Amino acid sequence: MARRKIIAGNWKMNMTPTEAVALIDELKPLVVNDEADVVFCVPAIDIIPAMEAAKGTNIHIGAENMYFEEKGAYTGEISPKMLVDAGVKYVIIGHSERREYFAETDETVNKKVLKAFEHGLTPIICCGESLTQREQGITIDWIRQQIKIAFLNVTADKAKAAVIAYEPIWAIGTGKTATSDQAEEVCAAIRACIGEIYDEATAEAIRIQYGGSVNGANAAELFAKPNIDGGLVGGASLKPDFGKIVNYK
Ligand code: PGA
Fold it and tell me: Is the CB–ligand 1 distance for residue 234 below 6 Å?
């Protein structure tokens, strides 16, 4: 069975609640596509107004992060239950910016992935190498380690529903996209790794996105690759260009 594409925007720390509603109103006619899941991952404070603005459209509202505890004395954090109660289905876990600026590790990513599944949320699990790692020729080893730790104690059934975003750090926000062959090579290796951890059926079912300077001009070539099931899009998700990415064909 062909995997359904999933194209997600990652708004990062952009858009006030008022701006979020205006942007959704602007983009909603442009992102209609029955053949793909379309997700806008927005700042926590934007989730509720964004949900309202996206009502009756094909847009799913997602979160950019969550904490791995149920509740309690964790000032400033957002719990999985809060996301679920707000109607969220997807949550980005372990984006490279969270790892770099907020000390997230493969271990905290694993805890968040387990917690997301416990609450019926679909994690969009990020992995990716630095430019130095690519130049050292250790990209695949590095990604395999990130994936193996992220999926520790995750059952095959749950893993099947997960989304993985392969995002080379050197391609994020730089305008420097990985070539479609580079992206495909790593996405294929990720799928093979899932096959080793679980089985062929899980590897075939899991969806793997590419992220890193995706835009309306390069999406078609990237998404045509057999192991690339869509994209995680930063900068271009805040512009009408996102409509071109969603309707890449
Ligand atoms: P970019 O960001 O599309 O602006 O490169 C991608 C991401 O960080 O998810």
Answer: yes
To test ligand 1's pocket by mutation, which of 213, 215, 218, 238 has the most ligand atoms within 8 angstroms of CB? 213
3-state secondary structure the chain: CCCCEEEEEECCCCCCHHHHHHHHHHHCCCCCCCCEEEEEEECHHHHHHHHHHCCCCCEEEEECCCCCCCCCCCCCCCCHHHHHHCCCCEEEECCHHHHHHCCCCHHHHHHHHHHHHHCCCEEEEEECCCHHHHHHCCHHHHHHHHHHHHCCCCCHHHHHHCEEEECCHHHCCCCCCCCHHHHHHHHHHHHHHHHHHCCHHHHHHCEEEEECCCCCCCHHHHHCCCCCCEEEECHHHHCCHHHHHHCCC
In short, whether 211's Cβ falls inside 6 Å of ligand 1 is: yes
Q: For residue range 192-211, what is the model confidence (pLDDT) as tens digits? A: 999 999 999 999 999 999 99
pLDDT, position 211: 98
Q: Is 128 in the pocket of ligand 1 (CB under 6 A)?
A: no
Q: Which residues of the chain have pLDDT under 70?
A: 1
